[in-house]
User: What shape does this take?
Amino acid sequence: MSDIAQILIPLKMETSTLKPAAEQANNEATDLLKAAKANAAKVRTKGSPKGKGKESKADAKKPATPKEKKVTMASELDKIILSGGDFDKLIEAATARSKKLGGTIKYNAGVIRAHIKYRENKNPKYLGNLKLTDKGIFAKTSKKAA
Assistant: This one.
């Protein structure tokens, strides 16, 4: 016998003994997968009321109802700031709106200034034709030529 034949014959014998073991492992894996799928189906329907099984495919593909946008205090503070006025008026309006939304922040001139600074970093034209002063937020006055 040649050297190659001596090497191939034992290899052929080893692969023939491995094939049944591989088939058995594959069968076990298939059985485990089926059991897992069956268990998952039981878990999904376990908490449903009597008479209600799995939802049909038609029920599952119903379009979602549009959700209302949540009103944030930041957006409300933007509206209050852009309405302008002295700080006392702005603080009073911000506090009242915050309470309606369930907020707990104490508003003051510093909080309003910080919000304006944050918005102006993102959008330098945030205030538009309004000007921030020590007393509040007022419309810019144009200088008239004399």
